[in-house]
Amino acid sequence: MSRPGQLNDQTMPALLLVMPALIGLLLFILIPFSTALVLAFTDLRLGSPLAVSFVGFDQFLHLFNDPDFMRALLNNLLFAAVVVPLQTILALALALLLNRGLPGTVAFRTLFFMPVVFPMSLVAVIWSLIYAPGPNGMMNAFLHWASLGHWEARDFLRDPLLAMPAIMLLSIWQGVGFQMVILLAGLQGIPQTLYEAAALDGADRWRQLLHITLPQLRNPLIFVMLVTTILAFRLFDQVQIMTRGGPENATTTVIYETVQAAFARQQVALASAMTVIFFLLVLAVTWLQRRFTHQHREVA
Amino acid sequence: MKHRTGSMLLSYLLLIIITTLFIAPLMMMLLGSFKADHRVLLESGSVAALLPHDLSLQNYSDVFRRSDFMRFFFNSLFITSCIVICGLLVNSLAAYAFARLQWRGRDLLFNLVLALMILPFEAIAVPLFYGASMFGLRDTYSVQILPFIANAFSIYLFYSFFIGMPKELEEAARIDGASTLRIFFSIITPNAKPVFATVAILTFLTWWGSYLWPTMVTIGPAVRPLPLAIASFYTLPPLQWGDILAFGVMMVSPVLLVFVIFQRWFVAGVASSAIKG
User: How far is CA B84 from CA A178, B119, B147, B190, B228, in A?
Assistant: First the structure.
């Protein structure tokens, strides 16, 4: 119900209110990001005496022929392909267990959510101890016990085959509580009457899960998978602290390579091109999520 | 009836197995922080890692002797508090103007803010880093605070809450001649505590654990925050696991305490941010 007089009245106060936020977003997000978009098409390198020129897609071509960067991209995709389904299934299982209203549920929920408030750098340090080489390391000892003595002690973080799975495991440990809480909230929003109707029709628990719970949980499920996929592309802290991308590039990531290029080698343009590729990945994932979520709303 | 008891027992059994695996790292950290350094790794492969015996506070005093823990703690607290407090003010005011005031250009600007939500920090870290270097801002508090105050996602969360609030009180106040700021602080904020709590918690968690940006912009220990400090304490020779774990316990326990006290808010905050998002 806006009258014309009121419309003019509120323009000044509104501008004053949004100004601090808009200046911040402009200075620290919009301008830096646009700069990266432009620099990605140049050959700027700090400390180089040559004049800067536009080189078109050269930096991108260079990256797609760079085995280190391609390995990083592959590692991120692998991380997403393993962690997203595993963590989501585990989170869903925990949420379903905690949604049964058993006594003590709050205590369990607290425990599973606790690692979420741990900074990733601390998690990486603790897990470095867990992965300690030799039979005394906690993970080695656990696997030795669980395999009834068949497991030979390994140096997880220096083993090209085991380093990535080791980092995946601690990431799941830290992140599953976050997903669980969101799915639990989703579960609690499902009307009880749906289950009662299904029980009357003689549907067993498994069918109820398949035909009521999962479809009703569609949007929260898509959301947690989106967040975890984007986190998989942002992977950096654990890698920097535990393996520095090694051994033999087994754990290098797009962001790790970007920081190396920007920081250690001063390759501004190349790092900007990596930033753009990273952004396109995030954009693609977000677009997929929007698509699937909207489709559902049209159906419902 | 018998079927229900059985499935309940099975649920508990599953929960207990998962819980044990889940808390083993936490228990090892807590108990290890009270054990002599050489015993931490030696016992980590046996049940002894999870049993309390021969505990002492030696590691805790070693942390204070070997590192400037209090400074790092202050740095983290100062940086994160500034981001949270300034962010609550700046973003809620902007969201209010978007949600409630009538002005030209509003929808265009709001769509721009929504579009910015998609940009993770990593997508701007590189140019931001060169900008910070260019203006000589490396190794300062401000470079760790200023870029993160205005936040598109926070604006969106505030907006979603404000848009759902009833308008009657505001309109009455406006007819009485109250200014926009006065309406905001005396009518809106007291009725919007949940969204302020949600944004505060999410912002705090994000920046308290932030590691990438301080790695890039800090040089010495002067303005170094805790996540970076524990990573460098971990590589400080000689490798003394007891000290490292004590550092970790001191680093995380204040947050954990706040988390346990305000648990309902944490959980509700995280969940609500997702359902709206």
Answer: 21, 20, 12, 18, 20
